[in-house]
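Issue 218. Parser rejects a valid record. Input:
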Amino acid sequence: MANNLMNTYGRLPITVDFAQGAYVWDTDGKRYLDALSGIAVCSLGHAHPAVAKAVSEQAHMLVHTSNLYHIPQQEKLATDLCKLAKMDSVFFGNSGAEANEAAIKLARLYGHKKGIQNPQIIVTDGSFHGRTMATLSATGNRKIQAGFEPLVQGFLRVPYNDVETIKNVAEMNQNVVAILVEPVQGEGGINIPDADYLTQLRQICDDNGWLLMLDEIQTGMGRTGKWFAHQHAKIIPDVMTLAKALGNGLPIGACLAKGGAAKVLQPGTHGSTYGGNPLVCAAAQAVVDTMSKEKTPAAAARMGTQLVKGFSKTLAGQTGITDIRGLGMMIAIELDRPCAALVKLAADAGLLINVTAGNVVRLLPPLNLKDKEAKALISELSVVITGFLNHNNEEAS
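Output the parser choked on:
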């Protein structure tokens, strides 16, 4: 069959035919345990009955009208998200990148309203915020930016988990209006900062009149064992972005704001044709309702601990493993060497995983993973990793 798609993805030779829960089946009938969840998207698993029912019922009633009119499904979802996050207002878009674009625009407009002509946003090394021009400019990965110059200006980059550098910036730069940071870096390798990192950032922003903007695209919606990762630090941001798991596969992004930040964007300053249409909001509402009913964030906390302990036991003493870490169901197995080949080896063994930062196995399983599935993931992936490392060690010797 001819393929007229742009060559923007290095795809595995797998064509997924259907899926259920934590498993997907390809067109040859092979079953895979999905430990990636569509990159932290299908956090309730595939074909969840509550989500499927909500989408089907809404599709038979109304899919789209545009934001020229009131959308009850959108307003209800915004109310529930604000209650969960203790925020005041929401803008809905179609993706995480769009949610971060909204946050960046909000911060710039916030700065201009304060009389700052060249507003700047502090971002961090190793971050990932999206692939639009503004969000890739904010991203701390040169590989993603290469070839797309000139980049969007107005971003100051600092090391992740480094508060002192930000304090120095505060003393030297009067144009800073916000900090944009991930509570846990996902694409950067599941980098978990010090326990007081976000607390200190909150204080710095309060002291300087900056907005604390948290990119919870990957960490939000229960992934880390709380509804939102910043709740571990018991702080509230001024701006927070969501996407991925919010729609369990339906394209939706959200930019939430609180206090003065919630009033910055007004009619004419931002918008989206499809953003928050009835169909995607129905799906997202089903996600919120199901996670609330089933106490999914708490379940993710327990299962995440179980997975980290399991891998730590099965891979104990294995040469080549430098760290096994996690927060909730964001789990990393870090190796001392590049390990991209593990993605194909794991797929051959019936496991869907991801390698990020070159040498980190990133696991983002469904948050409602069953004990039997967790045990299978631990044992089978440990065999794959051990085989890969031992083969490498033999070749090196």
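Fixed in the parser; the record now loads. The first strand starts at residue 16 and ends at 20.
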